Amino acid sequence: MAYARCRPDDIFQEAIYLHDNASHARPRPEIDATMSTVVSDCFTIGSVVATKTCYNEDIEGEVLAFDPQTKMLILKCPSSSGNPKRHDVNIVNLSLVSDVQIKKEVTTAPEPPQSLNLHRLNTRVRNSIENKRRLVSALSACLDPEGQRLFLAIARVIDDVSWAGQNIRVYNEVTITPPYKVENVIGEQDSKPYNYIRKFVERHWKEHRELAAASHSHQQ
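Structure (tokenized):
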């Protein structure tokens, strides 16, 4: 593997695309045997490094991390989408590059990274798992696909939703009975929860009809 590329949605979240040179049909170019002697044993965080892979692809960016044992260098590069608020993150295997240049070296010690709030992270994980279990349990309570579809749509934006038999219960104030249409929304008609859920169900079925019409038109 020469390098792996990450294209993050933001600086904390990214989807990783692995580029495996072994899958290429073309033979691997020869690497200069002297490269191991010119590669620095350490790259300081914040330095700007330019590399050329064995397939002549130039990768230049700011050093985020470097592992001298595996010679894996992580570079933060400008976003390929052109968005100045985002970045590409490249993981470069220096054992498989043909050239390395330090464009800008940072000699000052980097600021220590902010500590993680482990309690908050663990709470988020537990809540996420509990929500998934609740959804699975709730969906098993109803075999009507239209009811399940509406329940999932509500659950995406409202936590306080559950099944009461075959009825959907929201905020413990509003009930939606089969076949789960707008006229099946039951509750205090002057209350905000009732009006909100009624509009939500109306919008849900409108989108459902539009998707069905588009699908039917595409099939024709």
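Residues 1-40 have pLDDT under 50 and may be disordered. The first strand starts at residue 3 and ends at 10.
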